[in-house]
């Protein structure tokens, strides 16, 4: 055993932790409610009870954030993480409709863009398309994108490149913009 929890153990740990948090909330609420009944139902007691409940909610949300970070770390250790981002050049008439990403010949994600997502990309937004585990070494990254270019004409483009994964996180950006040929959009694959 390496000292790290496997995925099943992590999920069990998170379930137990969530159950403990919920029990604490219910016990605290019951205690405060019983104290409130003993003192009478004045407005001041209700305000105090509400403030305590809000504090408990904030603590539960903070615990939930920490649990999600731990789960992401257990599923995608920092040394083996691949993050693929999608961006569109600001002055580009290109709008993606769908995008498919393959790693070493296997499709890992397919995404269809909504009108609002395409608009956000044109305004400088970046879409986090994929986060996954990838071992060190060379890997074949394939991208297939369909969309609309100037004049509302459809386009389809495919590219494949070999990327080299080293220790630490690996970022890859898929950037759509004007190509060398003005009638065809360009798809650049940038490694960080």
Descriptive account of the structure:
There is one protein chain. With about 190 residues, this protein is an alpha+beta fold. It has 2 domains: about 70 residues; about 110 residues, Immunoglobulin-like. It is built from 3 helices and 8 strands, in the order ααβββαβββββ. It has a 4-stranded mixed β-sheet with strand order 4-1-7-8. A hairpin with a 2-residue loop joins β2 and β3. It is elongated. The model has no long low-confidence stretch (mean pLDDT about 80).
Compact summary:
The chain has 192 residues and is α+β, with helices and mostly antiparallel strands.
Secondary structure layout plus pairing:
Blueprint: H1 7-39, H2 43-75, E1 81-88, E2 95-103, E3 106-112, H3 115-122, E4 127-133, E5 137-149, E6 153-165, E7 170-178, E8 185-191
């Amino acid at each position: 055993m390496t000292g790290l929890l496997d995925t099943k153990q992590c999920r069990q740990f998170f379930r137990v932790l969530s159950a403990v948090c919920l029990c604490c909330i219910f016990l605290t609420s019951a205690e405060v409610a019983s104290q409130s009944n003993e003192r009478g139902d004045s407005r001041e007691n209700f305000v105090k009870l509400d403030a305590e409940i809000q504090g408990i909610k904030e603590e539960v949300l903070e615990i939930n954030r920490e649990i999600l970070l731990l789960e992401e770390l257990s599923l995608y250790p920092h040394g083996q993480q691949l993050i693929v981002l999608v961006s569109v050049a600001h002055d580009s008439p290109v709008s993606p409709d769908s995008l498919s990403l393959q790693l070493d010949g296997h499709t890992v994600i397919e995404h269809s863009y909504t009108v609002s997502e395409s608009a956000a990309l044109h305004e400088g937004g970046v879409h986090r398309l994929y986060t996954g585990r990838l071992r060190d070494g060379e890997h074949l990254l394939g991208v297939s994108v369909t969309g609309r270019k100037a004049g509302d004409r459809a386009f389809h483009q495919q590219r494949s490149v070999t990327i080299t994964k080293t220790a630490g996180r690996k970022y890859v950006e898929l950037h759509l913009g004007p190509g060398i040929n003005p009638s065809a959009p360009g798809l650049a694959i940038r490694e960080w």
